[in-house]
Amino acid sequence: MTEKPEKVAVNIKYKDVEKTFSAPPEETWLLLSKFFSEFLPSFEIANKLLLSVDLQQLAKDCEGLIAFSQEGANLLVSKSKLTDNETLLLWLLAGYLGHKLGMMASDAVSKEELQAKLGKSGKITSTRLGELVKSDLVAKTSDEKFTVTTFGVAQMQKDLLSKIRAKTGA
Questions:
Q1: Residue of 38, 35, 11, 33 whose CA lies nearest to 22
Q2: pLDDT at position 2
């Protein structure tokens, strides 16, 4: 009578990927080695390509530009020194940051609210929001409101916030 070799069961979970092996010890070792040599590097590469927002860094980057009070978000820079698109993006970024920090119920802002904050006509506001949506910096929600996209936040951190600081002296 031949005895079956004992199997080793291994379950690996790395972020959203889960792999389970059940095989004789030598084969399990090979499967584990293969997992770590083939799959893990591709996850690391993919992770580097993933747009994500460091909330702590974003809050730091927004110091002196955006502040929150009981009434909600506030811009600390004069909109007269900013383009319409920069002003709209800052308001939407304030909504995003306020929502992520638990200071606001939603990150979505209506066109009417943005129009009032911009101080321009509905036509100008709609045109500017359309430009921002086309450039993927802003998205329109199913309930006709607007939010800044993750790409928009990344672009603002990379380029726009420093330009706004330079223009406004903030």
A1: 11
A2: 56
Number of H helices, E strands in the chain: 8, 7
Mean pLDDT of the residues in the chain: 88
Burial grade of 42 (CB within 10 A; 0-12, 13-18, 19 or more):
exposed
pLDDT tens for 8-45 read 888 888 777 788 888 887 788 788 777 777 776 676 77
Buried b (16+ CB within 10 A) or exposed e, 70-103: eeebebebebeebebbbbbbbbbbbbbbbbeeee
The backbone torsions φ and ψ at residue 101, rounded to the nearest 5 degrees and listed phi first, read: -85, 0
The enclosing H or E element of 48 equals: helix 40-49
- The closest alpha carbon to 146, from 88, 68, 84, belongs to 88
Percent of the chain that is helix, strand, coil (3-state, to 5): 55, 20, 30
Four-CA torsion 119, 120, 123, 124, nearest 10 degrees: -110
Q: Is 96 helix (H, G, I), strand (E, B) or coil?
A: helix
- Nearest Cα neighbor of 21 from 34, 32, 37, 6 is 32
* HSE-up of residue 165 (Cα within 13 Å, Cβ side): 13
